[in-house]
Amino acid sequence: MASLASGDQTARLRSLDVPTLVIHGADDPMCDVSGGRATAQAIPGAELVVLDGMGHDLPRALWPEITSLIANLVRRVEAASPTD
Known about the structure:
By secondary structure, this protein is α+β, with helices and mostly antiparallel strands. It is built from 4 helices and 2 strands; from the N terminus they run ααβαβα.
């Protein structure tokens, strides 16, 4: 309901300039995968990962995969950043 109440956020998402990883559950009964796709498409350079077996939660069995995805994003950003 919060997503619906806040209205279309596409324009605001397009203005983001940060490394972004959109993780969405393939089995999410509350937010269809199309919403995750739309979010990733709206954010410049965003990466979308759809996880089978995940709904609208973060099942403990997927924690290693989720944390690995996040850590990989951090590594890519750090590697691309100029050193001080």
